[in-house]
Amino acid sequence: FKANPSNKGKVLDSGLWKYTRHPNYFGDATVWWAFGLFSLAAGAYWQIVGSLIMTYLIIKISGVALLEKSLDDKKPEYKDYVKRTNAFFPWFPKKKYD
Length: 98
Hints:
Blueprint: H1 23-41, H2 48-61, H3 63-74, H4 78-84
Helix pairs in contact: 1-2, 2-3
């Protein structure tokens, strides 16, 4: 998508990006939750706190929050994309707005 010059300024909204605006960050959080669940199985219950903290950081502080600010300014189509696609958790897209 990025390699094609005709896509400059456009929003990728196909594939995984049709269901979530940040599938890579959702994948990162999923890995952290897997670590937490493995730790639970080993009896290290306090490790689940790490999964909670990492998910919070990805959504609110570093990943999603920073990228959303940047993309909103750079890509005019992004506002429409935000209206119809979940930011973090994959879900079916909302119907397009008029």
